[in-house]
Hints:
Blueprint: E1 2-6, H1 14-23, E2 27-30, H2 39-44, E3 50-52, E4 66-71, E5 74-79, H3 92-100, E6 105-107, E7 115-119, E8 122-126, E9 137-143, E10 149-155
Parallel strand pairs: 1-2, 2-3, 5-6, 6-8
Antiparallel strand pairs: 1-9, 4-5, 7-8, 9-10
Amino acid sequence: MRAAVFSxxxxxxxxxxxxxxxxRPDLIIHLGDHDRDTLCIEEEFPDIPLFxxxxxxxxxxxxxxxxxxxxxxxxxxxxxxxxxxxxxGSVDSLVYAAQERGCSLALxxxxxxxxxxxxxxVTVVNPGTAGKGRRLTWALIEVLPNGAIAVSMNEMD
Length: 157
């Protein structure tokens, strides 16, 4: 199972769409800011399952603030991150929320800084920003049948 993960597109959808065309993932996850940017994904890739959440810059959002996504044998908590105070430099409340829900993966955006770390049995990933900033990034997450998780951070062309 391969998931392409994007966040913080801020109406700049072309790099995200190019990345999806190149990697053809099994599913797509958008972590907010701006959740309506996913409408172009639905239009161009109707056969690829899409999961999305809203962010702090989403007014009148079309997506929930958080969700649980099945990725093969693991569950992922997806959110923008602002409601878990990740902008203060700690992912502790996000990790706790993932643990409470039986998730071994927690995906968030908001900070525009790509990162990956393992905390308390949870793989925490921020794909960075796919639409706003000098360095545009996204994450490709592969979940193997045994539950192993491989994460690769990618720069946009």
